[in-house]
Amino acid sequence: MTALATATSCCPNVSVEPAAAVLGRAAVPVVDLSSPGSAGAVASACGRLGFFKAVNHGIPVGLVEKLEAEALAFFSLPQNDKLLTSGAPLGYGHRKIGPNGDVGMLEFLMLSIGSNSVTTSALPTVLCYMLAEYMSRVQKVALRVLELMAEGLGMSDTNVFSRMVQRDGSDVLLRVNHYPVAMRQPAGGGRGAVGFGEHTDPQIIAVLRSNSASGLQIALRDGSWVPVEPDPESFFVNVGDSMQVLTNGRYRSVRHRVVVEAGEWARARLSMIYFGAPAPSERIAPVPELIGKGEASRYRSFTWREYKAAAYKSRLADRRLDGFQLDAQGSPDDET
Ligand SMILES: C=C1C[C@]23C[C@@]1(O)CC[C@H]2[C@@]12CC[C@H](O)[C@@](C)(C(=O)O1)[C@H]2[C@@H]3C(=O)O
Ligand SMILES: O=C(O)CCC(=O)C(=O)O
Ligand SMILES: [Fe+2]
């Protein structure tokens, strides 16, 4: 394990080793979603890292930039106005991440999307409208990626994963994270500080877009952290815990965190993340076709309701899937 891998959210000042920083640029696979042969590249990235950058996704950058401007206008409102929209876990939140004592250097908006409409009221109308438009666009990208994920595994039905986030009652969230410079504690020596502590996403998939302020880092399989160069024109796809289970560990959920810039040149980071999960009653278990010959199911079956409840009882950095594993010796997280 490197020094980086041992840094956690209880240790706010972290740095990135030069070797990891160099590796970072080369390590993040890039998938062209418009290319007919992209399923193989998606499968390879999801199996190796659980993470890739998606280009040629079809969402005009202008649309995202307009939403970004509206979101920044919202975050610049007086705190009391923003708090009018809060109703944890949805709506506006500030510093507190989840209900169990985790904190970050951010404020955020969390929206639950039902039937493509933003269900949180009390937001400025234009922002609400733009969020709904963005949501329906990014959902299409997520569906395409989920189909490629299935195709890349040679599944006979390539809609198995995409159906789960599309059905009535599916639990789809949009989170807008804002890491203002003013919220950052002074960090010595120009080193970054943890804006959002390390974790895996509990859902099936997350699709992230950020402005050009850096911060996102992913953990490699050896535990070392690499920075992800921001690219406002692209999306970053995270494999979530539920996808790891559905594929019996063939795809791996990626551990990630945000380490915000420090120093005079630091910029505010704004990220928007789509989280795709099924309806609460939907069962999550390895798809039989993906359990190899002579292999056993590595996870017990559970409903999304059950896993979400377990996630909300856990701390951000916890390895939530451990409690659902059937074979403690064969933990996918232990493989190198
Ligand atoms: C500390 C927590 C925040 C979180 C719920 C949890 O108890 C553990 C998982 C966290 C996470 C990470 C991915 C998403 O940002 C999120 C919305 C989710 O579904 O799980 C957050 C939760 C949150 O911030 O409420
Ligand atoms: O804000 C970011 O860039 C990433 C945050 C994240 O991982 C999350 O909200 O789950
Ligand atoms: Fe995340």
UniProtKB/TrEMBL annotation:
It comes from the Eukaryota. InterPro entries: DIOX_N, IPNS-like_FE2OG_OXY, IPNS-like_sf, Iron_ascorbate_oxido_reductase, Oxoglu/Fe-dep_dioxygenase_dom. It holds the Pfam family DIOX_N. It catalyses: gibberellin A1 + 2-oxoglutarate + O2 = gibberellin A8 + succinate + CO2. Its EC number is 1.14.11.13. It is an enzyme of class 1 (oxidoreductase). The keyword Metal-binding applies. Keywords: Dioxygenase, Iron, Metal-binding, Oxidoreductase. Residues 169-278 form the Fe2OG dioxygenase domain. Coiled coil: none annotated. SUPFAM superfamilies: Clavaminate synthase-like. PROSITE patterns: FE2OG_OXY (PS51471). One of its GO terms (molecular function) is gibberellin 2-beta-dioxygenase activity. Its cofactor is L-ascorbate. Belongs to the iron/ascorbate-dependent oxidoreductase family. GA2OX subfamily. This is gibberellin 2beta-dioxygenase.
